[in-house]
Design a protein that fits this description.
The chain has helices at 17-28, 35-48, 56-65, 93-98, 100-103, 106-122, 134-138, 152-163, 169-183, 206-221, and strands at residues 5-10, 31-34, 68-70, 79-81, 84-85, 126-131, 144-149, 197-200. It is α/β, with parallel strands linked by helices. The strands form two sheets. It has a five-stranded parallel sheet, with helices on both faces. Strands 3-4-5 form a three-stranded antiparallel sheet, covered by helices on one side. Helix 3 (56-65) packs parallel to helix 6 (106-122) and helix 8 (152-163) crosses helix 9 (169-183). It starts with a strand and ends with a helix. It binds 2'-deoxycytidine-5'-monophosphate.
Length: 222
């Protein structure tokens, strides 16, 4: 294994990339970055500032002004925006429903991408970073690059199992299908770019998925 290892994982909602990335980070003793949590945290910031989702310049201003702090410890995840802890709030359906107002705006993406690169650069022994554009935009030079997908039915079932009673079928379809279609306007996370390995986890459980990624890491970097 090299002294420093950067692993980039992309995939759509519910593909299992967060749980997989955390498991891989823990197994290899690496830091972990959930870039989706950053998009979600700035969503809290623009909503708190009273900015409407369709007010693009307001969303850009709230994003670039946001003071964002995020844990890179896979075992202890937290995120703060403008001094407020939003660790639990970023998972609420109201945030999922409004996050595309950030992720579909080029200026917001550019701001968050540069913050993400700084966090990755600062990770001493390396990091597992996951999102939608990590393999292609944020860290195209990562040592290991993976696109993790799963069929839409499997992804909806996983999100339902995660959120339980807190979500109905309409919200579920909005969170998975509508959001993927919005998010894929600026970023391609459904087909693997050159040099990116595609892993379909539809018929794999979490342990098997983590095992497959660890195998890929060993094959790639030894
Ligand atoms: O992975 P997630 O569901 O927590 O991501 C939240 C939103 O942020 C999602 O709608 C897509 C967007 N996102 C993105 O556009 N690029 C990333 N690197 C990570 C997330």
């Amino acid at each position: 294994m090299p002294d420093r290892l950067v692993i980039a994982i992309d995939g759509p909602s519910g593909s299992g990339k967060s749980s997989t990335a955390k498991g891989v980070a823990s197994a290899l003793g690496l830091a972990y970055l959930d870039t989706g949590a950053m998009y979600r945290a700035v969503t809290c910031a623009y909503l708190d500032a009273g900015v409407a989702p369709d007010d693009e310049s307001g969303v850009i201003a709230a994003t670039t002004a946001a003071v964002l702090e995020i844990s890179t410890d896979a075992a202890n995840q937290w995120v703060r925006v403008n001094g407020a802890d939003v660790t639990l709030r970023i998972r609420e359906p109201a945030i999922s429903a409004n996050v595309s107002a950030v992720s579909t705006v080029t200026e917001c993406r550019a701001d968050l991408v540069s913050r993400q690169r700084a966090i990755i650069d600062a990770a001493g022994s390396g990091i597992v970073a996951e999102g939608r554009d990590i393999t292609t935009v944020v860290a195209p030079d990562a040592d290991v690059r993976l696109l993790l997908t799963a069929d839409p039915e499997a992804r909806m079932a996983r999100r339902k199992a995660e959120l339980g009673e807190k979500i109905d079928e309409v919200q579920l379809a909005d969170q998975i299908l509508r959001r993927d279609s919005d998010d894929s306007k600026l970023v391609n996370f459904t087909t693997a770019a050159d040099g990116v390995t595609h892993l379909d986890s539809t018929f794999l459980n979490l342990e098997e998925t983590i095992g497959a990624v660890l195998d890929l890491v060993r094959r790639t970097v030894g």
